Amino acid sequence: MENQNDVEQNLKIEDRGILTPQQCSECDKVFTCNSVLIKHFRIHTGENAYKCSLCGKAFSHNGGLKVHMMIHTEERPFQCSQCDKTFITNTQLKRHIREVHTGERTYKCSQCDKDYISKCSLTKHMIIHTGERHYQCSQCNKAFYEKGVFKTHMLIHTVLSVQ
């Protein structure tokens, strides 16, 4: 695995200052901006350079720390105009409006007629079509779509081993 200095040195900038698209050496994602590639690469290195002085939680990006600090300051600058509920980020406010007030379902399944409020919900649904089962029990080899269902299943083995 390359370190962050290697990544920074390998970025190529053309003569006119236009950035040549660069591919992450770990996951093949492509970026056209050095700073975005460098920040992205921290996912692979596990580097968490930004640490909360109040609770010690660490983040790979300054933006993550800024949002986190609002938990401690109780700052919630984004207010819903329909119910006065407040949120830390604009993304949270938009999701709230979609889920609570408009019921807008912008994420549509390409394989059936179902649609969803969030990308996460659609991703969970797509497992039905792909048959992916990422969670496999090492004791009985059953496989599960969702982590929560897998954890519940594992309790069965815990209870059986105690008896």
From TrEMBL:
InterPro entries this protein is in? Krueppel_C2H2_ZnFinger (IPR050826), Znf_C2H2_sf (IPR036236), Znf_C2H2_type (IPR013087)
SMART domains per the UniProt record, alphabetical: ZnF_C2H2
Keyword Zinc-finger present in the record's keywords: the answer is yes
Question: Do the record's keywords include Iron?
Answer: no
The UniProt keyword set, sorted, is:
Metal-binding, Nucleus, Repeat, Zinc, Zinc-finger
Q: Which Pfam families match?
A: zf-C2H2
The GO molecular function terms of this record are: zinc ion binding
What residues does the C2H2-type domain cover?
22-49, 50-77, 78-106, 107-134, 135-158
Protein name per Swiss-Prot or TrEMBL:
C2H2-type domain-containing protein
Origin species, per record, is Meganyctiphanes norvegica (Northern krill)
